[in-house]
Amino acid sequence: MELKTLFDEKTIRGRIRSLAKEIESYYKRRTNNLHAVCILKGSIHFFSELVMAIDMDVTYSFIHVSSYAGTESTGRIRVKSWIDESIEGKHVLVVEDVIDTGHTLKYILNYLRRYRPADLKIVTLVEKKKHDHGIPVDFVGFEIGDVFLVGYGLDYNEKYRNLPYLGYLE
């Protein structure tokens, strides 16, 4: 398999800064306190860049789930760790790396709603347009077709996460 670049580091970081401004614009009319939930492991680089660029008071939580083996979804969601503090009454931003089928994100959102946040919004670095996942995504970095992404936190069997760009395996 050959690795090809889809979005370089400069393009990604520029788009993340723009997303941060969009998020600020939405929330500033409502609150100056935001609770960001990082979906591990793939979102870690996106999450870090994004929250540093948001000019608000931001607190963090982390959820570690997995549903992929190689390039395919297993259809089974494994929760490895969950949020460790209350989000009741808070403005919550779920930070996802890629939305593809939406199964994992739907699972997470259903559980987070049980904690009664004041507001629950979604930001994703990449939204794949192959599937009609039915999730209203509030902030989208890039829209793409059906390619398997690696880099910038995304992996293939735990490899390539540390690449500073988004690429795909051909």
Protein model, in words:
The protein has a single domain, classed as Rossmann fold. 24% of the residues lie in helices and 39% in strands. The protein contains three helices and nine strands, in the order E-H-E-H-E-E-E-H-E-E-E-E. The protein has helices at 9-28, 44-53, 103-113; strands at 3-7, 33-40, 57-69, 72-81, 91-99, 119-128, 139-144, 149-150, 166-169. Strand 3 (57-69) and strand 4 (72-81) form a beta hairpin. Helix 1 packs across helix 2. The longest helix has 20 residues, at 9-28. The protein starts with a strand and ends with a strand.
List the helices and strands and how they pair.
Elements: E1 3-7, H1 9-28, E2 33-40, H2 44-53, E3 57-69, E4 72-81, E5 91-99, H3 103-113, E6 119-128, E7 139-144, E8 149-150, E9 166-169
Parallel strand pairs: 2-3, 2-5, 5-6, 6-7
Antiparallel strand pairs: 1-9, 3-4, 8-9
Q: Which structural class is indicated by helix and strand composition?
A: alpha/beta
Low-pLDDT windows of residues = none
Largest sheet: 6 strands, mixed
Instruction: Provide mean pLDDT, rounded.
Output: 92
Number of domains: 1
Number of helices: 3
The rounded distance between the terminal residues' Cα atoms is 6 Å
Helix content: 10-25%
Number of beta strands: 9
CATH architecture: 3-Layer(aba) Sandwich
- Strand percent estimate: 35-45%
What shape does the CA trace take? globular
